[in-house]
Amino acid sequence: MIMQFPIAHNDELLVSILARFVARQGLKNDKAALDLLFGTRNIVPSALLQGHIQPLLSNVGHLWSVSETDVINRHSLLPFFQSFIEPQRIEAVQNSLIYSEKSTALTTIGKNASNIHWPMYYRYCPKCVAEDNKLLAYSYWRRSFQLPGLVVCPKHFVYLQNSHFKLFPSSRHGFCNASQVITSDKLIHIDVDSNNKLSKLAIHLQQLLQINTPYVSPLQWAIFYQKAIRDIGLVNGARPDHLKIKERVISYWGIKFLSSHGLGIHNENSWLLAFFRKHRRHYTALHHLVCMMALFPFQSIFGAINEASLIIPERQKKKVYTNSKLEDKVDEYRTNWLLIYSQFDSLKSIRGTREGARLYLWLFRYDNAWLQKHLPKRIYYNIGKVNWAKRDQELVKKLILVRNKSYDNLSLPRMTQTWFIAQVGVIWGVTSHLEKLPLSKCFFIKYTESIDEYQIRRVLAIIINCINKNEPLPRPYEIERLAGLSKQRSREPVKCILEMDFEEFSCFQIPSRKC
User: Is the pTM of this model over 0.70?
Assistant: First the structure.
């Protein structure tokens, strides 16, 4: 029976409390420490979300009077996610941490699938450690210092330092006591101005961990941000002005900070682009704070959460179609549908014909209930075990052929990943299995067109066509109009081309690639 247990400090990680207990008991064998605390040796300590709380409290509850939920709320990082993850998922994680023998908490909250860079090592504030040693004669791991994006102590405004002990060590069963890792000769601090953006970010992140906030759904966030960017004029017509938004975020945070925290926006389809569209998934607190501090400096994160949580999304009403000749035509359409239905074995085949598409559209609008009862049965393909390497080689060969055939055709639509897949005509989902197709993935990375490249091709198609026909080149604004562009939509590379002296092009003749 355990006769003594350390007093838990405010903002202390549960694993830090356990590490102090192990150090005080003088336990050198990690497995023996686990057996004493949890009653089993088959447990892996977790820095962020320590599980097996019920068996722990059954052994130390007589010395530590606290409930399971209080342990989670006070000594884990789960409260940090409460406004950004569904309550059902939060409850599932809580139950997993309390009762489950095998915790999947990090996977459930989305940490493993997120691009956000979490700290690799336990972090500490030199001034906090000095205070601890003076008042307590020991130190401990603070949970807020292990949050992603928090690099400054919110109390002393000095940069946090990395210890040499990893948050996810290779020795999976060991405990790390802060007093044994942090030595007095390493307590060198670098001050940061309290008004610095990193200091403000640290304060917001710590408050999100400590203050109870309501849940906000992705749709509520989407509505909130749509209104917010309209209020400050970051719109282009009815749509978000993504270029200006990107410029402001980069201007405020800098490329280095964003990239170092997994928030890089150098890709064309970055998280920032999706963030100001309709939210189809949850974003982390760091995503929200990065955007909010850069674009809405007078809006607090807590005000935003409370305001967004009160938004009641309007349900989109299903459009009801009416037709004055419905009763006269319905029998005719039903008969024709049954006739074409008997000739094909799939809905895709029916809609692939002109008559089938016409009948389907009419019945879908005006006689949907009857149509749903008279659709072909869905075909399920049982292809067994797939040789992905072979399939990858076959697919990339087809993609290369498509690329070679379309290289000279400047009038084609934008050559996106979806466009290439459509040209190949495969029936299985390439996009959903792309990680198993490394050759095809490399092809898409190299040859899919960005918006800049597509705009350049549209402009060059007009210029080359005029040169080959010995026609005078249109003025830049006419080329822009013929290419379907405008001053607002044109990217920088296109603007550079349109600023060139087109009179020099008149002496050129574009040679054919066929020699």
Answer: no
